[in-house]
Amino acid sequence: MENRGTRTVVRKIVIAGVLGAIIALLGYLGTAGPGYIPVPTPAQHATTLHVPVIIGAILEGPIVGLVLGLLFGLSSWFQAGLLGVVMFQDPLVAILPRLFIGLTAWAAYAGFRKTGKYAAMALAGCLLVLCGAFVYWVLAVNVLLAVVFAIVLLALVAGFVFLALRENRELQALILSGAVGTLTNTILVLTMLVLRGYLPAEAALVAGLTNGIPETIVACIIVVAVVGAWKGIETRRAGSTV
Amino acid sequence: MSEFSAFRHITIGQYLPVGSFVHGLDPRAKIVMFTLLVATVAFANSYTASVLLLLALLGIVYLAHTPLRYALQGLRPALPWITFFAVLQLLFYRDQYGSEVCSVIWRGGFVTVTTCSLRQIGLMALRLLEFMILISLFTLTSTTTQLTHGLERLLHPLERFSFPAHELSLVFAIALRFAPTLAGELERIMKAQASRGADFGEQGRLRFIQRTRNMLPLMVPLFLSALRRAEDLTLAMEARGYTGGRGRTSFIQLRPVPSDYLALALVTIFCAAVALYNFRAIDGLVATAVGGYIKDVASLIVR
């Protein structure tokens, strides 16, 4: 099979459709299937449905990411309507934030592959400042939370710097893209929840930590495994197919 | 092996060519009616409205000559989670909108059962039933080709603003077509992994790390299988000369008939009536009556 260099519209449509089918399927199976991972919190489940969005954005670009984000939002909104979960019945909470997952994931992937070490360090500096401002805000809500967030955010930025210093851009770009996409989902959805008054800020922050971290880890693992295998498969066929 | 066969309960996406009045309706009308009914079901906030909707839907099921039991099979895998949510709502629901007066039925510790929470689970059960019937109706009476054409025709006017209506409807069509295929694929992958020693017996138990680790050998092959199919489909489409939506004509021409407009008008009026009419008064009567009965029965049991 020759290497496909051209990215045609047909390919984008088909990949969007097929990954959209995965989103619809996992959304339909709900918490009984592999679309959700259990976490020890009242919410009980963290989602993995954002992973197809990220993969689609990485493989085929921001528009496919946008469409898949829309499908993810629709699936989430529909499921909320079915189960009567009031929070996600609001399309501004279920659909609007999800549109950005694909965009940021693609931006992270495409951008990181091209940035040099110094640009990445500058970016890390800006991130540190942002995180500092955020922790300062959290201090007003709850001191313990602020400390936890400070540690977690510091670890994240350190991880980013560690990634930026390595030579193999491809793998790091995938990890970063997975993390950025997941964090977009978590941050934007929780922001909308707080803005629309469904959750108090404190609960949202805690949920962000307890749901966001497992989601990020799982997303990065799946993204790296799938995209890595796929790009490898494009040039050779080996091993079992299941 | 029963945990592997859950995916066959997916009745969504199966078309039954029975040839009823509903089958013959213009797909554009069907899409609009479906959307209206979904919106009404989602926002119905009273018992009476929900019951009315349920009756209407059952009427449409009868019109469409579709077997209801087939449609409701899809509910079975979701039942444990629905009951879980129902119990949660029953015990912990606190009215967020503040406009309802909730009389407490039973209070024990930090658990409160009010008329509002009863109403929530009643509504939730009804709503769930209605959604299942609606979705099954929709997919049982229309082929994916019809739906694609209908959606594309509906969105076509937007193409004037560079909105890729044709491409989007194609994405939906592909997604609809591949969802059952990928479901079967997921089942196959589960069996393959199990035959190699993966342990999926922890379904429902709270083994967090185990379940998360179990999920990865399912997701990755699923994605790769989906991407492979996408590759094949792309090749097939290009080999058959698909060049995009511009200037594309279709062999199937959708022509609306008076019966389509009539059905659409009826459904619109019905939905508007259900959505706008204030059922508060009737609801209040029903609620107090039922509440009275429950209290009597409960006091009989407790004594």
Task: Provide key terms for this protein.
heterodimer; A: 242 residues; mainly alpha; Arp2/3 complex 21 kDa subunit ARPC3; two-stranded antiparallel ribbon; 9 helices; 2% strand; globular; B: 303 residues; 2 domains; two-stranded antiparallel sheet; 10 helices; 2 strands
Count the helices of chain B. How many? Answer: 10
Unreliable stretches of chain B (pLDDT < 50, length at least 5) are 95-100
Spatial order of strands in the largest sheet of chain A? 1-2
Number of strands of chain B: 2
Rough outline of chain B:
flat
Overall structural class of chain B, as computed from helix and strand content, comes to mainly alpha
Distance between the termini of chain B: 45 Å
Give the % helix of chain A.
over 70%
What does this structure look like?
The complex is a heterodimer of chains A (242) and B (303). Chain A is mainly alpha-helical. Chain A has a single domain (9-233), classed as Arp2/3 complex 21 kDa subunit ARPC3 (Orthogonal Bundle), CATH 1.10.1760.20. Chain A is 75% helix and 2% strand. Chain A contains nine helices and two strands. In chain A, strands 1-2 form a two-stranded antiparallel sheet. The two termini of chain A are 20 Å apart. Chain B is mainly alpha-helical. Chain B has two domains: 9-142 and 257-303, no CATH class; 164-254. Helices cover 65% and strands 3% of the residues of chain B. Chain B has helices at residues 27-43, 47-63, 68-72, 79-92, 115-140, 144-155, 165-195, 208-239, 258-276, 280-302; strands at 104-108, 111-114. In chain B, strands 1-2 form a two-stranded antiparallel ribbon. The longest helix of chain B has 32 residues, at 208-239. The radius of gyration of chain B is 24 Å and the shape is flat.
Topology:
The complex is a heterodimer of chains A (242) and B (303).
Chain A: H1 9-29, E1 36-38, E2 45-47, H2 50-60, H3 62-83, H4 91-94, H5 99-114, H6 117-141, H7 143-165, H8 169-195, H9 201-233
Antiparallel strand pairs in A: 1-2
Helix pairs in contact in A: 1-2, 1-3, 2-3, 2-5, 2-8, 2-9, 3-5, 5-8, 6-7, 8-9
Chain B: H1 27-43, H2 47-63, H3 68-72, H4 79-92, E1 104-108, E2 111-114, H5 115-140, H6 144-155, H7 165-195, H8 208-239, H9 258-276, H10 280-302
Antiparallel strand pairs in B: 1-2
Helix pairs in contact in B: 1-5, 1-6, 1-9, 2-5, 4-5, 6-7, 7-8
